[in-house]
Amino acid sequence: MRRVSKEKRPARKQTRSPAEVRLIPIPVPDEILPGDNLAENLLASLRRCRIRLEPGDIFVVKHKIVSKSEGRILDLAMVSPSPESFAWAQQYALDPRVIELALREARSVIRRQNGVLITETHHGFLCANSGVDVSNVDGGRHAVLLPENPDRSAANLRRAIQRRTGLSVPVIITDSFGRPWREGLTEFAIGIAGMKPLRDDRNRCDPHGYKLKASVEAVADELASAAGLVCGKLNRTPACIIRGFRYETGAGGVRDLLRPASSDLFR
Amino acid sequence: MRRVSKEKRPARKQTRSPAEVRLIPIPVPDEILPGDNLAENLLASLRRCRIRLEPGDIFVVKHKIVSKSEGRILDLAMVSPSPESFAWAQQYALDPRVIELALREARSVIRRQNGVLITETHHGFLCANSGVDVSNVDGGRHAVLLPENPDRSAANLRRAIQRRTGLSVPVIITDSFGRPWREGLTEFAIGIAGMKPLRDDRNRCDPHGYKLKASVEAVADELASAAGLVCGKLNRTPACIIRGFRYETGAGGVRDLLRPASSDLFR
Question: A20 CB near a chain B CB, below 8 Å?
Fold first, then answer.
């Protein structure tokens, strides 16, 4: 291992300190039901917590309350699994009705192995069971589907917040997905409005004058993961505000984060 | 789509509001060199910014300054690429010396396609070029390797911080990795000391009494991603403090986050 000699230490440069970022949880004690006005509900929660929305804030919302407000809820008693779904689910002690819904919500099946069903959803997300989930609904009778068009849901929520507050804040909708290679779930952005999901630092120079080659950062996914630290399945906190992060404004949606199958080495 | 009737709305329950989480950047204007005392350097930066370490804080550090302090730096002029590395790198206008180092640091090659080299490192990380990187070093003359044993590096840093401050804080070391299926890089935990990397909520009940089945959250990766929002390649901020997140103490290392090849559907 070759050592860089101490004499070469570059002189300290004064750089502007980056700002602190705050993750401010928004508890929503009310159960969100189909037809509810989500923006109103979230803003009421903010008022209850005496939090004022500020310019520069980012709203991050777990998809489940978005799906609920949009009526993307299905009574599992009304779902008749195909014999194929039934047989496969039985084999792994899974609910065949959830598997049936997952297949209906899928554009294609990526893997079905060891009791794990990974699909590509109609939106283009690769995740377990097409994101169909029965937790945090009503104890197992209904299932929640992903929003039909999460970018549109995010844009709607953003517009509704702007109408009520006069502030134009980005909105990110998230879901927790598993990952290849790594254990555990993390939150991912599935719908985005009002900011660029990627920060492209390629061709910019680091402090040593080296031109960056691969530095495209999925900031929307990092914001989603950060939100996962304060939002949770157990604490009735399905949303948060992220304050202090300098996002790039501009058009962009979740499609920017989805690698096309043609350039993906791992399907 | 079946609708849940409004009459079924459960009564609002009082729940304890989750705490705010703060991401406090630690700028390190000095270049870290082999043999430098990293703990001392980071604590000096904290003092300069008038930040006091508090019980419950988590230290998140980008691996590059850890690798530099440990001397995991190589002069690229000393690396002779094999004819194979040379031919493949040439084809995609890559630096054959970086490819050669990546292969030396790899346990196996996972994909080598379209100018992308994905390896499994000796540690078990799946990432591009075995994590070998030339940005933020000295303009392209030296390359930085991942720490030899990042869990050990994290434990060492944690002990050194404890000796100097009396506070026993978890330490997470991170690197930015690409992901299958998604565009852009995010920060991942590659070394962990002083906290459990996963939070296992399986068999706990959601507010509706439904028993969670799959809820294992990779909190160390979410903390790493959150840190990515304040740390950066361009702002000399290679570390931050995360304050307010209730981590689980206990033994654990990055191995907990690495899915064994035998149960991984995507290699």
Answer: yes
What's the CATH number of domain A73-145, 2.120.10.30, 3.30.300.10, 3.90.1660.10, 3.10.450.30? 3.90.1660.10
CA B252 to chain centre: 15
Chain A 121-160, CB below 8 Å of chain B: which residues? Answer: 126, 128, 134-140, 142
CATH of domain A21-72+147-257: 3.30.1330.100
Residue of B nearest to A49 (CA): B17
CATH architecture of B20-72+146-258: 2-Layer Sandwich (3.30)
Q: What is the dihedral of CA B41, B47, B48, B50, to 10 degrees?
A: 150
Alpha helices in chain B (DSSP H): 38-48, 63-69, 83-91, 96-104, 150-165, 219-228
Q: Could you read off the pLDDT of B96-139 as tens digits, one per residue?
A: 999 999 999 999 999 999 899 999 999 999 999 999 999 888 88
Question: What are A46-78's pLDDT values in tens digits?
Answer: 999 999 999 999 999 999 999 999 999 999 999
pTM over 0.90: yes
ipTM value for the complex? 0.93
